[in-house]
C-alpha cells in the first residue's frame, strides 16, 4: 500500500462520512420559515403524515438500505446497514472500490466499509510484506481527518434517524404532497419540503444551509426512499428494512493498519 494512495483515499472516505451525516439531521428547536417551502403547496394533512413517519423512525435504530451519493460528477453507491440512536451512529456497507478510488488497494468487486466509535475502517487487499503483512483493514480517525468539532457535531446528529430533518417543516405544516408514485415496484406517496442542514456542520464544512428533501412513504407507514439535494450534492437512500439496535463489529487490532495522519502515514506497499 502506497502512502500517497492511502492519503488520497482518506479524503474521499471522510467526504463520504460527512455526506452521509451532515444533511440528514437538524435540531428539533429550529423554527424558522424557509421561503422555498412556502412557495410549494404546503398541506396540513401531508405535514401530519410526515411528522408521524419521523416519529415512527425514532422507534427504530437501524436500517438496511442502499445509499447513492452524487457530487462533482462522482457517484458513490453503498449498500448495507446504517445505525443511529443514543448507542452511537455508524454503518457497515459494501462499496465498489472504484467509487472511492481504491482500485489499487482493493481489487475485488466490492469492499467493506465500517464506521463506528469515531473511526472509519476500509477493507483492502492483504499487505504482502513487512511488519504489517497479512492485514486487511485501514483505520482512519474521523477526528484526526476532520477535527474533533465536526466529529462531535456528527455524533450528536447521529442520535436521530436519517429522515429527522423533516421533523421541523412537518411540525410547522410546511410539507407538500406531490402524489402517488411507484418506487421499486412499491406503491408510495411522495412528499416534499425544504429542510435545514445541521448548522454546526454547515459552519465547519461550508455546505449549503438548506436542501430540498423528498420522501416516499409506503403502505406500512415507513420510508421507501429519501432524497436530499442541496444543489451541490444529491443523496438518495432506498430503505429495505428497519430494525433495532445493531452492533457494528470492529476489526481486530492485529488485522488493522493505523492511518494516524492521512497526509504523512507511511505503510508497506502491497
TrEMBL record:
Identify the PROSITE patterns for this entry. Answer: PROKAR_LIPOPROTEIN
For the region Disordered, give the residue spans: 25-44
Q: Which InterPro entries match?
A: LolA/LolB/LppX
Domain of life assignment? Bacteria
Q: Per its record, how is this protein called by name?
A: Lipoprotein
Amino acid at each position: 500500500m502506497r502512502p500517497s494512495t492511502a492519503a488520497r483515499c482518506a479524503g474521499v472516505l471522510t467526504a463520504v462520512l460527512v455526506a452521509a451525516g451532515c444533511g440528514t439531521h437538524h435540531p428539533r428547536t429550529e423554527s424558522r420559515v424557509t421561503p422555498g417551502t412556502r412557495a410549494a403547496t404546503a398541506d396540513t394533512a401531508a405535514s401530519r403524515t410526515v411528522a408521524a413517519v419521523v416519529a415512527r423512525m425514532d422507534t427504530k435504530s437501524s436500517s438496511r438500505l442502499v445509499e447513492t451519493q452524487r457530487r462533482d460528477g462522482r457517484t458513490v453507491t453503498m449498500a448495507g446497514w446504517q445505525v443511529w440512536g443514543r448507542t452511537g451512529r455508524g454503518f457497515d456497507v459494501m462499496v465498489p472500490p472504484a467509487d472511492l478510488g481504491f482500485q489499487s488497494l482493493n481489487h475485488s468487486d466490492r469492499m467493506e466499509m465500517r464506521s463506528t466509535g469515531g473511526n472509519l475502517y476500509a477493507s483492502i487487499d492483504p499487505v504482502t510484506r513487512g511488519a504489517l503483512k497479512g492485514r486487511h483493514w485501514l483505520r482512519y480517525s474521523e477526528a484526526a481527518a476532520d477535527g474533533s468539532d465536526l466529529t462531535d457535531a456528527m455524533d450528536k446528529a447521529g442520535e436521530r434517524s436519517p429522515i429527522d430533518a423533516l421533523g421541523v417543516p412537518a411540525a410547522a405544516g410546511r410539507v407538500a404532497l406531490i402524489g402517488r408514485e411507484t418506487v421499486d415496484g412499491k406503491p408510495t406517496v411522495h412528499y416534499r419540503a425544504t429542510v435545514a442542514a445541521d448548522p454546526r456542520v454547515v459552519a465547519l464544512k461550508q455546505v449549503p444551509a438548506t436542501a430540498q428533501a423528498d420522501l416516499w412513504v409506503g403502505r406500512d407507514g415507513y420510508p421507501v426512499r429519501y432524497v436530499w439535494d442541496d444543489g451541490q450534492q444529491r443523496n438518495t437512500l432506498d430503505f429495505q428494512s428497519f430494525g433495532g439496535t445493531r452492533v457494528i463489529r470492529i476489526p481486530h487490532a492485529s488485522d488493522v493498519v493505523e492511518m494516524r495522519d492521512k497526509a504523512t502515514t507511511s505503510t508497506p506497499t502491497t
